Amino acid sequence: FLIDFIRFSETVKEKVLVFSQYIDTLELIRDQLSAVFGWTEGEEILYMHGQLQQKFRQRLINNFD
């Protein structure tokens, strides 16, 4: 479902924000997005988790906007 939703979002020029309680789930999603779309972390994929330092977290937020 997520891959199809992202494909649709691309056609209407919308961004997608995915939340998960578990880092393992986020890593799986990140890996799938890389495999399916050829996306890379830091470019099309902005990966944020609770262990991330505040300055890096803010940088990701700014890049998402």
N- and C-termini, Cα separation: 24 Å
Q: What is Rg?
A: 12 Å
Number of domains: 1
Helix content: 55-70%
The portion of residues forming beta strands comes to: under 5%
Structural class: mainly alpha
Identify low-pLDDT runs. Answer: none
**How many runs of DSSP E, i.e. beta strands?**
0
Average the pLDDT over all residues and give the rounded result: 92
How would you classify the quaternary structure?
Answer: single chain
Biggest sheet descriptor: none
What is the helix/strand order?
HHH
Overall 3D geometry?
A: globular
Number of helices, where a helix is a run of at least 4 consecutive DSSP H or I residues: 3
Domain Helicase C-terminal: 3-64
GO molecular function, one term: helicase activity
InterPro entries: CLSY/DRD1 (IPR044567), Helicase_C-like (IPR001650), P-loop_NTPase (IPR027417)
GO cellular component, one term: nucleus
